[in-house]
Amino acid sequence: TPPVTPPVRALMELLASEGELSNADIRTRMQLKDRAHVREHYIDPGLAQGLIEYTLPDKPTSRLQKYRLSEAGWHLHTAMASHAAKA
């Protein structure tokens, strides 16, 4: 499994605290402007690693699409938070 990059880690933290978010919501909360950059560096790697998931898996390009932490993402988020608390 490839390591979790800082952008994916930041996205995981955001989704853990905010819940389901659209691409536009993610950009707003992270103060990012470039939709393609967010998709390429944050969303696509998180999806590929199974750490985040679509809310509408059958319609990945839907304008109503949102993203959330997957079960694996929640497990990793909890483990990272536990490790950080011990440090």
What would you say this structure looks like, in words?
- The protein has 87 residues and is mostly helical.
- 59% of the residues lie in helices and 7% in strands.
- It contains four helices and two strands.
- It has a two-stranded antiparallel ribbon.
- Helix 1 (6-18) packs across helix 3.
- The model has no long low-confidence stretch (mean pLDDT 94).
Total individual domains: 1
Alpha plus pi helix count: 4
The dominant shape is globular
First and last CA, distance: 24 Å
CATH superfamily: Winged helix-like DNA-binding domain superfamily/Winged helix DNA-binding domain
What name is given to the CATH topology?
Arc Repressor Mutant, subunit A
Reported for the largest beta sheet, the result is: 2 strands, antiparallel
The proportion of residues in beta strands is 5-15%
Q: What is the CATH C-level name?
A: Mainly Alpha
Strand and helix order: HHHEEH
* Poorly predicted tracts of residues: none
DSSP strand count:
2
CATH 2nd-level architecture: Orthogonal Bundle
**Broad structural category:** mainly alpha
Task: Order the strands across the largest sheet as they lie in space.
Answer: 1-2
Secondary structure: helix percent: 55-70%
Indicate the radius of gyration in whole angstroms.
13 Å
Mean of all residue-level pLDDT scores: 94
